[in-house]
Amino acid sequence: MSVMSGFRTELINKILGFNPHIIIKPYDKKINKEEVDKLDEIKKSISRIAFTFSGQGILINRENTTGIFVRSYLQNDIDKIDLIKNGIIDGSLNSFNKNTISIGKELAIS
């Protein structure tokens, strides 16, 4: 039973480590980072805030075509995400710049 409990904990940590608990996304405009910084009362109960930009894409090579989910982080925010920070196999966060991408293991081997 404790094995299943450990698996459940690990699974939840993986899912919640990469996907936020809350997403705030206005439909009529972009989020203004300065406006969020002013929300001190709300921020007292939040452990982390990371601004992301996301969308879908398609990758095509000679053998496969696959849909992908693309998520972009501000350079100062990417090291707040433990799953990314602790999961780097090759390279480092210190070498990230505006022309750098990080891909997951599944995409790397496909």
Write out key terms for the chains shown.
110 residues; alpha+beta; two-stranded antiparallel sheet; 5 helices; 32% helix; globular
Give a verbal description of the structure.
With 110 residues, this protein is an alpha+beta fold. The protein has one domain. Helices cover 32% and strands 16% of the residues. The protein contains 5 helices and 2 strands. The chain has a two-stranded antiparallel ribbon with strand order 1-2. Strand 1 and strand 2 form a beta hairpin. The chain is globular, with a radius of gyration of 17 Å. The model has no long low-confidence stretch (mean pLDDT 75).
Q: Outline of this structure?
A:
Helix content is about 30%, strand content about 15%.
Supply Rg: 17 Å
Shape field: globular
Annotation, overall tally of beta strands: 2
Helix content: 25-40%
Beta fraction of the residues?
A: 15-25%
Outline the biggest β-sheet.
2 strands, antiparallel
Distance between the first and last residues' Cα: 35 Å
Number of domains: 1
- Mean pLDDT, as a whole number? 75
Continuous helix count = 5
Task: Itemize the secondary structure elements and their pairings.
Layout: H1 2-18, H2 33-37, H3 40-43, E1 52-60, E2 65-73, H4 82-85, H5 105-109
Antiparallel strand pairs: 1-2
